[in-house]
Amino acid sequence: MSFHTKHLHRQLVTILTIQAALPCFVLLGISIYILGLFEVVQGPELEVLTFIIVELPALISPIVVVTHIRSYHDAAVSLLKWRAPSRPPSTSFANHILDIPLTSRRPVTPISPKFF
């Protein structure tokens, strides 16, 4: 495998591992709900905490993707700074298909209107 492929594979495995662990928050929220249902623990804070914990995976998943994929991270940082990125990505390989420069052996010429 090339260095580029290994890097992308490692990146994918890391993101999938973190996202696979996110349902644990849902199980924790369900456990807290069951404790409140059987009146083991009670209170309005418990009800709010249950819904906050259950919604955490929906919040954390996009954050994980944005922080671990370089092109998304650079775009998010440039949006937060309200300016275009001042430097090219620091990696020497492309993270995304759009990062690969398109080159051809001969120049592309526009089609003249007489062909239509």
Compact description:
The protein has one domain (3-115). Helix content is 61%, strand content 0%. It has four helices and no strands.
What does it look like?
Its main location: membrane. It is a multi-pass membrane protein. InterPro entries: 7TM_GPCR_serpentine_rcpt_Srd (IPR019421), Nematode_rcpt-like_delta (IPR050920). The protein has 116 residues and is mainly alpha-helical. It has one domain. 61% of the residues lie in helices and 0% in strands. The chain has 4 helices and no strands. Helix 1 runs antiparallel to helix 3 and helix 2 runs antiparallel to helix 3. The radius of gyration is 24 Å and the shape is elongated. The two termini are 47 Å apart. The mean pLDDT is 80.
SSE blueprint and pairings:
Blueprint: H1 3-21, H2 23-37, H3 44-68, H4 70-81
Name a few traits of the molecule.
single chain, about 120 residues, mainly alpha, 4 helices, elongated
What is the CA-atom radius of gyration, in angstroms? 24 Å
- Ends: how far apart? 47 Å
Strand content: under 5%
Order of helix and strand elements from N to C terminus: HHHH
Structurally, the number of domains stands at: 1
Low-confidence stretches: none
| Overall geometric form | elongated
Please provide the count of β strands: 0
Helix percentage range: 55-70%
